[in-house]
Amino acid sequence: MLTLLLVEDQQLIRQGLSALLSLEPDITIQAEAETGKLALEHLGKLAPEELPDVALMDLRMPIMDGIATTEVITQRYPSIKVLVLTTFDDDELITQAMAVGAQGYLLKDTPSEELADAIRTVARGYSQFGPGIVQKMMAAQTFQAKGPRDQDAELVAILASLTPRE
Q: Which of 47, 68, 90, 165 lies at a C-alpha separation of 20 to 30 Å from 76?
């Protein structure tokens, strides 16, 4: 049985996720938190053997956002896997989430059965990414890996290939 900490600031979304995931026979919602601060307070009250397997983490929340919360969880509680579930497919947020230890990154339009499978996958120690997320990460990494001259040359080549109207 997998245990899950659900961290989501929007009550309707949190309740919907909880209801959907409760239908899965092997997933138990251990606790819900509407902010990262409340999630950490909950975890601080638990014995090591009571910690959840996975934290399903929203990114944009008041008081303490999902990036900061993920960083604290992965440092203090390395046994907990963090799976980000957000509406934002922003390159910078993806990079930040992965840099602080998230095991995966999904968008909120992920079908519920795929979300449940992703939770299971992350709990087993594997990474899980929604469609297009890995490509965004690779593109950002490739761009960062190139030196300024390479980037300038690439930009000049792209601009040269455009028609006057483009």
A: 90
pTM: 0.82
- Looking up tokens 């947020």 gives 93
Longest pairwise C-alpha distance within the chain: 66
The residues, ordered by sequence, that sit 6+ positions from 146 with a Cβ below 8 Å of its Cβ are 154
Q: What is the DSSP letter of 24?
A: S
**First vs last C-alpha separation in the chain:** 56
CA distance 43 to 17: 20
100-129 in b/e burial notation, b at 16+ Cβ within 10 A?
A: bbbbbbbbeebeeeebbebbbbbbeeeebb
Cα–Cα distance measured from residue 86 to residue 9, given in angstroms and rounded to the nearest whole number: 11
Higher-confidence residue of 130 and 86: namely 86
